[in-house]
Amino acid sequence: xxxxxxxxxxxxxxxxxxxxxxxxxxxxxxxxxxxxxxxxxxxxxxxxxxxxxxxxxxxxxxxxxxxxxxxxxxxxxxxxxxxxxxxxxxxxxxxxxxxxxxxxxxxxxxxxxxxxxxxxxxxxxxxxxxxxxxxxxxxxxxxxxxxxxxxxxxxxxxxxxxxxxxxxxxxxxxxxxxxxxxxxxxxxxxxxxxxxxxxxxxxxxxxxxxxxxxxxxxxxxxxxxxxxxxxxxxxxxxxxxxxxxxxxxxxxxxxxxxxxxxxxxxxxxxxxxxxxxxxxxxxxxxxxxxxxxxxxxxxxxxxxxxxxxxxxxxxxxx
Length: 318
Ligand SMILES: Cc1cc2nc3c(=O)[nH]c(=O)nc-3n(C[C@H](O)[C@H](O)[C@H](O)COP(=O)(O)OP(=O)(O)OC[C@H]3O[C@@H](n4cnc5c(N)ncnc54)[C@H](O)[C@@H]3O)c2cc1C
Prior knowledge:
The structure is a single chain. By secondary structure, the chain is α/β, with parallel strands linked by helices. The chain folds into two domains: 2-169, HUPs (Rossmann fold, 3-Layer(aba) Sandwich), CATH 3.40.50.620; 195-317, TPP-binding domain (Rossmann fold, 3-Layer(aba) Sandwich). Helix content is 25%, strand content 25%. It has a seven-stranded parallel sheet with strand order 5-9-4-1-2-3-10, sandwiched between helices. Strands 12-11-13-14-15 form a five-stranded parallel sheet. The protein has a three-stranded antiparallel sheet with strand order 6-7-8, with no helix packed on it. Strand 14 (278-283), helix 7 (290-293) and strand 15 form a beta-alpha-beta unit. It binds flavin-adenine dinucleotide (FAD). Flavin-adenine dinucleotide is lined by residues 205-207, 231-234, 245-250, 262-264, 266, 268-269, 272, 282-285, 288, 301-303.
């Protein structure tokens, strides 16, 4: 038996995050996996019907812990130390990246971030992750226990399976020592789907020439039930908030379709979107690197191409 601890996340709307549902698929694909999901706070529907063997609850994440996750790390580390799982799986989110890395330090164990595949068929935990800004994939074997991984959003599809796991509470009784105090938290205003969870991402770059065109991109994203992304150049210019940035120093996305508009396709940008199932580029420079990465592309001025593209999408969806 391989014991897997899956760290579940509840999103800001009170739903299980897509990355958690994807991690459930990944965990269920492991050989002889006995899966326990850990969730902060109370386990209510739909957590209680996750396709896992058991749910363990830890203390809820309060406002003072958002963004630093000191208490959540302490609780999960205590749970890991008492249950000794072989593998700990997080979705790649701010929470997973912060807590996963700290947990690895506390457990003196390996941490593999941003994985797109995990397996244990021959008894060894193997993971695959993009390297060199997404231009190559590398496979690693993890020999330390537990193997702690974060899975890139979109690497697995939620399979819709449900279960009826037993629920038990775990109290670590340990108070986290705080090095940072959170004085205020602000929820990001968001219409529609989260960037990391979107099946369609419509991203804009410096080629848009200013902030106003992002409203057209938002219209296209809305027509596709998708989300708006951006290059760092567009974010640095103040045209759109940095929470939309895709890339090495931004978010990693793996949508079904990634539409890059006025984006040159620098390696640092591609690091965040190269695992998309299809990339569509609109760029006026035929020699732009984005066309080496794109499955479909239009060489042209976005101002001419985008209105008819949007009209056609709306027509097809009507
Ligand atoms: C350490 C480091 C980390 C970085 N991290 C990131 C990151 O996370 N994400 C990221 O995006 N970048 C990142 N960068 C920056 C990256 O190297 C590029 O500078 C950036 O991605 C370029 O953004 P862009 O494609 O929007 O702009 P540009 O490279 O300037 O490209 C603009 C494109 O728009 C096209 N264009 C212009 N006008 C039109 C028009 N009217 N119609 C259609 N197309 C048009 C042009 O042909 C061009 O290809 C990082 C850089 C470093 C050094």
